[in-house]
Amino acid sequence: QSLQGQAQADGGSGVETATVIGAGTMGSQIAAVAALAGFHTYLVDIAEEPLAQAVDQLRSRFDRDVEKGRRTREDVEAAWERLITTTDRDAAAAASDIVVEAAVEDLDVKRRIFAELDSVCSPDTILATNSSNIVPSRLAEVVEHGGRMCNLHFFNPALVMECVELVPHHGTSEETRRRAGAFAEELGKTLVTLKQEIPGFVANRLLNAIRREALSLYDQGVADFPDIDAAARTALRHPMGPFELMDLVGIDVVYLIRQAEHAQTGDPEDLPDPAIAELYEAGRLGRKTGRGWYSYA
Ligand code: 3HC
After folding, report:
1. Among the atoms of ligand 1, which is closest to the Cα of residue 160?
2. What is the whole-number distance in angstroms between the Cα of residue 268 and the centre of ligand 1?
3. Same structural domain for residues 64 and 210?
4. Which of 155, 173, 175, 232 is the most exposed place for a label (fewest CB within 10 A)?
5. Whose CA is nearest to atom 27 of ligand 1?
């Protein structure tokens, strides 16, 4: 190996095999990104059904990419070879150099997952959560080797969005910071590194500010939500307005993120907006249920 090759190898993540926990919208696409980038990837869920659904969705997504000339058939087939779905979480995690958890946004669930992972993974395995809001120190508390814990936060749709935020806690080791950041870059993502943890990180805090203002304008009756979206799209050139974005991300996700944030800060300002709570309780969860702020045929 050349000196440069050696240096690159030394600066790399050292990851060959990755496990992604949770076959929902985020987890399935994160696993696809990893498989496309050349990693042996396990996509794990507790039941076969969400795994089968994820495979169907990724299949049609990949087929469309091939049709449109965005990827070659060979690249896509090679990614399928590397992507294994399984319900045997512990076996997958034990064979992996990094685990990215993308399960439901619930602190207790995540703490249980990481406590269990801690006992099956090698101490060198990076433990990362894709949580949007739960800071890594809350999860590191249940992990014996807390230095390997961090957040790697992807954006929806993960196959498309370039950004990954790396969020360390005060005890995250230098080695984990370096390797997790290198892994995100090896996935072809642009890395945004936080120097310290804060709920919401950077991008969601920016988004929150916009969403809060949009909901306040709507609640006050200043403008209807499609007009607020139109302003964001056409005056600010955002690809989507804040209401369209809530439907894409999922009203349930927005609701649970607010609940999680409120649980961490105790600030009533952080509670879900009443309009969000109403949609959530009505089961209008956005694109995935065919109805949220908007209706989808
Ligand atoms: N999955 C994968 N690829 C998708 C996709 C999805 N759900 N939706 C769209 N795409 C890709 C496809 O390649 C599509 O091309 P195709 O239709 O030929 O297959 C291409 O994007 C363009 O899609 P559309 O023509 O439907 O629409 P747009 O041009 O508006 O692009 C978008 C769609 C990329 C989603 C764009 O609207 C966008 O960037 N929206 C903002 C997304 C955003 O802000 N995400 C961050 C959310 S916050 C978050 O995730 C944090 C979390 O913690 C909550």
Report:
1. 3
2. 32
3. no
4. 175
5. 239
The ranges of the chain with pLDDT < 50 are 1-8
Number of domains in the chain: 2
Q: Of the residues 140, 163, 193, which one is the last residue of a structural domain?
A: 193
- For residue 248, the SS3 value is helix
Pocket residues for ligand 1 (CB within 6 Å)?
61, 64, 68, 132, 155-157, 159-161, 204, 207, 239-240, 245, 249, 253
pLDDT tens, residue by residue, 27-49: 999 999 999 999 999 999 999 99
Distance, CA 82 to ligand 1 centroid (Å)? 24
Per-residue confidence (pLDDT) for residue 257, from 0 to 100: 86
The tens digit of pLDDT for each residue in 239-291 reads 999 999 999 999 999 999 888 888 878 999 889 999 999 999 999 999 999 99
pLDDT at 8: 42
Q: Which of 165, 193, 221 is the last residue of a domain?
A: 193
pLDDT of residue 297: 83
Burial of 28 (0-12, 13-18, 19+ CB in 10 A): buried
Three-class secondary structure assignment of 165-233: EEEECCCCCHHHHHHHHHHHHHCCCEEEECCCCCCCCCHHHHHHHHHHHHHHHHHCCCCCHHHHHHHHH
Q: Is residue 84 one of the residues assigned to a domain?
A: yes
Q: Determine which residue's CA is closest to atom 44 belonging to ligand 1.
A: 245
